[in-house]
Amino acid sequence: MFKNDLTHPISVVTCRPELAVIIPTYNEVDNVVPIITALENALVGIEWELIIVDDDSPDETAMQVRILACHNPRVRVLQRLGRRGLASACIEGMLVTTAPFLAIMDADLQHDENLLPTMLMRLKQAPLDIVIGSRYVNGGTVGEWNKQRQKMSQFASQFAHSLIHAKLHDPMSGFFMLRAEVFHLSVRKLSGVGFKLLLDLFASHPETLRFEELPYQFRTRQNGTSKLESAVLWEYLLMLLQKFTGNWLPVRFISFIFIGASGVLIHLCVLWLLYKSLATSFIVGQSVATLVAMTTNFFFNNLLTYRDMRLRGKQLIRGWFSFILACSVGAIANVGVANYLVQAHSWWMLSAIAGIIVGAVWNYAVTAVYTWNKPR
Ligand code: GDD
Ligand code: MN
């Protein structure tokens, strides 16, 4: 419907509500009342709704929102089960509304809700696709961030400029408002991984987005804790890589391959230790090294590749077992294919690479279905 036409099928004038504020949450129960109150004060005179997308927070944020929604028709909750991820939560939130203007912000009051009316006004008046709350344009600040966090944000921003051509001051911002049709034009290309939705939107949109940055003061979090961990940096690098390779490799596959390569190194180290230093037989060294490498591969993949559906507790043992089983079959396929090619007089190196590719694709596909894709 939106494919070739930038005009939204729903009239901007008649559509109610006019603005949807989408807030992703994970363990933000104490911030729900304050953020709703803050929005009510800031958005007087605007037809708005709030969509909270909660990833089944253990602190029952979703239930708290539901209770408040009983008496407040502006508020809705979308509770996702067995999944994690800020960007994917925002995407799904944006998909459930009919509002022609969409705002994304955090639940923790770090973003200044008083900027929302100005953002909306700019989008309506000026030829703009997106308005971004920026900490790095004149008048904006990062508040009380420590030096390391400031450095990390600036480093990531510099990287971002090599991906998108727009000269954004704050490409890492999690606070912005855009036209719904702009979102719908790029939604199928979004990687949806990690924290960096804004960058993803710029990189995925078929045309250069017309944007404006408005300064605001990044406030200090009052309740709860930040969910930004160092694994987020890994997801960010993967997203960049996926965009650079023109979207043709799934982001998880890229991650899986990198971790597989680390497994080869680990394998060689363990083999060296056992066979060369401890003088075990080669077969013992090779078997132990294979098991160790498979195990580290499993844990790294669980932590990084499948961070959003991480296995824990009992599931971890079942997952590890299914991973070893799948990869053992993958190894047999690898050797079988390589051997077949060598016997058909292919060059040994090419045969080995073909075997490795078949094994890797098998391992990825099978573990994606059996190890990490069980409904929970
Ligand atoms: N649904 C869902 N699922 N929400 C999540 C998840 C998740 O896995 N992880 C975090 N959130 C929610 C939080 O509850 C919060 O409302 C919002 O996303 C931002 O998370 P924070 O943990 O507060 O992030 P931050 O303050 O460290 O990072 C902010 O600054 C970054 C700039 O460096 C965010 O605004 C980021 O979007 C921004 O990129
Ligand atoms: Mn925050």
From TrEMBL:
Residues 256-372 form the GtrA/DPMS transmembrane domain. One of its GO terms (cellular component) is membrane. It is a multi-pass membrane protein. The chain crosses the membrane at residues 253-275, 281-300, 320-341, 347-372. One of its GO terms (molecular function) is dolichyl-phosphate beta-D-mannosyltransferase activity. It is found in: Membrane. The keyword Transmembrane helix applies. Belongs to the glycosyltransferase 2 family. This is Glycosyltransferase family 2 protein. It comes from Thiospirillum jenense.
